[in-house]
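DATA SHEET
Item: assembly model
Revision: 1
Owner: S.N.
Input lines:
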Amino acid sequence: MTTVSRETMQLEAYATLLRKWNPTINLVAPATLPNLEARHIADSLQLARTAEDAVGDWLDIGSGGGLPGIVIAVSRPDLSVSLLESDKRKCSFLRSAVRELGLENVKIINERIEQAGPQSASNVSARALAPLPLLLSYVSRHLAPDGTAWLMKGRNWRSEVDDARKDWSFDLCTHKSQTDEEAVILQITGIRHA
Ligand SMILES: C[S@@+](CC[C@H](N)C(=O)[O-])C[C@H]1O[C@@H](n2cnc3c(N)ncnc32)[C@H](O)[C@@H]1O
């Protein structure tokens, strides 16, 4: 008999919810729905694996339908996870997902990143939110001074890093994506205005 893990069951339930709500709210690009598990969920899960030693709390900014925030919360029930998202309807979806998956470690903040009170989180993540220079201003508002940013970036990541270095100094460690040849996870610490 095979045993299906709690994590697998919760992620399957999450995929079902995304498919159910997507026609109404557009949580992910409709064309990517057939590949939801690989394109979005496995992509987010690899961040949880990359950040497996992360401690403290976790803030996902511009969380949308909960990528990667919900996946992090499922994978790391030991972490307290906050999802910061300005869109009311997406927050309704997130509340519903949290309830249906039975997640007890998630808080949803329905505000704009620039207006929400500083969260001083130990870890901040973002996926498909903004170019790195702007993203670092968002992150620096909410990251604790000794915290770590985990930023999921596509093929233009090198030029975004070069641009960001004009205004910011930071320590960078890159992790190649397992799900997309050209993508990376940027692990960033010590963010300061240059
Ligand atoms: C392209 S979506 C990406 C969503 C999710 N991270 C993903 O990978 O599927 C960007 C999300 O960020 C939210 N967003 C954009 N600017 C924001 C801001 N200034 N404050 C809060 N949320 C914001 C949008 O409402 C949207 O849900």
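QC remark: The first strand starts at residue 57 and ends at 61.
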